[in-house]
Request: fold
Amino acid sequence: MTLTALLAEAGLTGRGGAAFSTARKVEAAHAHGAHLIVNACDGELGAAKDGWVVAHRLAELFDGAAAIAAGSATTYAAHRGSDTAHRLRAAGLPVLEVPARYVSSEESSLISLAQGGLARPMAKRQPFVRGGRDSDGRHIRPTVVLNAETVWRAGQVVRLGADWHRSFGTTAEPGPRLVAVSTPTARGVVVETAAGAPVLDLLAAADPVAVASGLVDRSPGVLLGGLGGTFVAPADLRGLAWSDEGLARVGARTGPGVVEVLDPAACPVEFVDRCLTWAAGESAGQCGPCMFGLPALAADWRALAAGDHTAHGRVVSRISRLPGRGACRFPDGVAGFAWSALRVFGPHLDTHRHGRCDAALRQNDHRTDGRTHVHAG
Ligand code: SF4
Reply:
């Protein structure tokens, strides 16, 4: 059986967020002799699983990459100066060092960087696996990007078989998968699970005390999927299954496999403020929604947090104008994040009608350097 037939039988899909069929990507890569980039950047807010694969399953990752590349060149992408980059280099693997910015590890950014360009998203005229030219007319050689967990899983399928892979998860979403969970008391804990598992079990596996002590129930919200993800109220976690089918009930997706439980003692509106400010500074700033829309949204959200309730209408208007207008989907993801923040934190926003809430004022008192601190990965 060919590798693509085996991967199709296993039902393996990309673990980086898009959940596209790995068999179809690999088939196209083989048809065009594509260069393979293994993305181990963990670029999403709170992501940690690709670094975990490099730290704990490097030999199996290498085997998966060798099977997929089938003789074509392979490069491993990791954030510059990260532990993951050091581990890959120490193992003698070719490393593409990527600036630690949010959009730098997007698929087309990596392809651009690997071919001597800037680590910025490129407009897609056709799938990069076929090669072609970018919008500046630069020749792009055929390249396929797969995230590290996907490549590791492909190696497992080769070694253990399609039936082994399908013995986990559901018929529609088979296979084991990693999720990075953060709580106020545990950051970036990587848990192995499968589609259909209760979300509360994931949280209990990562931080049992947070669940048993009621910290999760008291949280103002749980963020599923990072900066391109969705906030969910803790009450909605009951009976919620970790799968795209299950999370659709709350408007969320499994995406890049990231879960963050917000701190009950902290202000969620301030958390969103920091994330939006960070998002506005992280884009490549080459399209309208990122150059103008994200900074304006961050400014209006900050005004809302400070008690200017007239900013609510502007926030709604800004969010509605972000999607579908950038060269990549970064602004679309931030729009979904902000919509869900408005929905889940609506009651809390009422406590900001005359200025920041007590928790926000305490947080601001503790912020001594006036800079935004969001931990990515
Ligand atoms: S939408 Fe934003 S992040 Fe994406 S390419 Fe345009 S400027 Fe860059």
Remarks:
- The CA atoms of residues 2 and 27 lie 10 Å apart.
- Residues 288-305 form the longest helix (18 residues).
